[in-house]
Amino acid sequence: MKQVEHALIVGGGIAGCAAAIALAQAGVRVTMLERQQEWRFQSSGIFIYHNGLAALGSLGVLPQIVSGGFAIADGRNIYLDERGEPITDTYYPSRHPDIPPIVGIRRAEMHRILASRLELLRVDIRLGTTAVRIDQNTAEHVTVTLSDGTTGQYDLVVGADGIRSEIRRLVAGPLEPVYTGLGVWRSVHTRPKDLTAKIMMMGAGKRLGIMPISDDQLYLFGTLPEPAGQWYERAGWPALMQARFAAFGGPARQFLDALSADSEVLYTAVEEVGAPLPWHRGRVIMIGDAAHASTPFMGQGGAMALEDAVLLAEMLSRDVDVESALRAFGEARYPLCKFVQDTSRKVGEAGAQEDADIINTRNETMRRTAQRQVHDFYARMDVLRSQLPLAQSA
Ligand SMILES: Cc1cc2nc3c(=O)[nH]c(=O)nc-3n(C[C@H](O)[C@H](O)[C@H](O)COP(=O)(O)OP(=O)(O)OC[C@H]3O[C@@H](n4cnc5c(N)ncnc54)[C@H](O)[C@@H]3O)c2cc1C
């Protein structure tokens, strides 16, 4: 990559690790900063749909992700009501025979796989380090002072520093995350051997999902409205999760009953960020949640971060100047990421506003429309992805 010899990545989450791998694979020398003193990732699980898996393929880690996680080869998603009675089934698509429609994996395992790839590519990882000063005095370089006191010159700075991004402040000015009024409760359990599909249980104003994440584990993820500014003592999370979803039976019941003070439970208040374009200033760009943190209802935030990373490296390898590539990257990604955010928000809001009276009508509508909605969502993503500004000139 002629114009980018040395890149600095700020943030070592999904977006940062993926960008570091993609750039290093393209021959760029990469330094990656991670504020945490040691790799310490929220556990529980994550599911990655086919588009995110394709990006992981480009990063050279798809086989490891598939074997470290749990692939649902036919993409089956079973919708049940809160008692466990069937509503309908849908099937997530894949776009390639070698890429499963969906894989569930422990977040820590996914990170371990990305970290091994970084090591193999000799990315210079600085844990416990952040950028304290970023100067763009010339058009050719960015001068960055790190928290360890050193100063260096980089041809590119990638802000992959998550929803509370400091790089975003530099690029787009103050833009705080917005609370959505919804909370997510997650817990990890032993997987019964016969639980091999993704299951979504539809309560009134509540959802409870079950997703295998390895040969022997699965995770539960439950969403519902939660008051703004509410803080719950961590020790109380298992009991709170149990109480929130007490009405749920069917396949979730055994896992809810098993929750105890020792259980691995996480609570997250759901926030969003939608930074307007441009996503870059000079040679500094933001990707992943820093630019477009989404609600989790379409399960696409991680996949969007992975796609960002792969496309960024691809666009920078084209024969255009760095700023044009960064501008084109933002213009290409913005409509797709906004579509995912908007769809996800609508799904979350619609779910939260339900009351018991409309459940029968909702279930009837789902039987008629759920598969079409899955199809339309991914078809629209394909269209938006095909409209890349530089794609035609590649
Ligand atoms: C409840 C919930 C469930 C979700 N489920 C799914 C799912 O199933 N599938 C899916 O695809 N997506 C899912 N997502 C979205 C997904 O988790 C995020 O989109 C993804 O983690 C974003 O990655 P990121 O690297 O941009 O940000 P982050 O994961 O937030 O990583 C940012 C990293 O930067 C570091 N950092 C921050 N500031 C600095 C700094 N100043 N200097 C150095 N380092 C810094 C942080 O420590 C962190 O390691 C979910 C999100 C939520 C909230």
From TrEMBL:
Entry annotated with the keyword Oxidoreductase: yes
UniProt xrefs under Gene3D superfamilies: FAD/NAD(P)-binding domain
Signal peptide stretch: none
Key words, A-Z: Monooxygenase, Oxidoreductase
Every FAD-binding domain range: 7-318
Molecular-function GO terms, alphabetical: FAD binding; monooxygenase activity
PROSITE patterns: PROKAR_LIPOPROTEIN (PS51257)
A UniProt-annotated Pfam family: FAD_binding_3
Name of this protein: FAD-dependent oxidoreductase
Species this protein is from: Cupriavidus oxalaticus
